[in-house]
């Protein structure tokens, strides 16, 4: 059975990455959740919430970042931070409700970010 819970640890990592890399995201408009029992092969995913759902459920939440516990939780610090950074890069700075795809220039710069992510983990900043 699929279960969801708040992922406060993931949100905390996202805050640090947002600051470190100057992503300029309003993370108060992003919900971070952890799923258990998913059959997905993904480690994590970012979803834009449709405007109708925002109207009915929570108008403040534009995006949902979901980590799949079975694939995410066993990763080391750098692996978890890398996955969260990847998911944050799907969210455009304008936070318009849309999502960036992997051909976006933000993803092309991702490899240059790897050393900084690893250093953040080594220094205990994540």
From TrEMBL:
Q: Provide the protein name.
A: Metallopeptidase
Q: Do you know which Pfam families this protein is assigned to? A: PhageMetallopep
- InterPro entries, alphabetized: Put_Metallopep
Q: Which residues form the Putative phage metallopeptidase domain?
A: 3-122
Q: Which organism is it from?
A: Thermocladium modestius
Source lineage: Archaea, Thermoproteota, Thermoprotei, Thermoproteales, Thermoproteaceae
Superkingdom, according to UniProt? Archaea
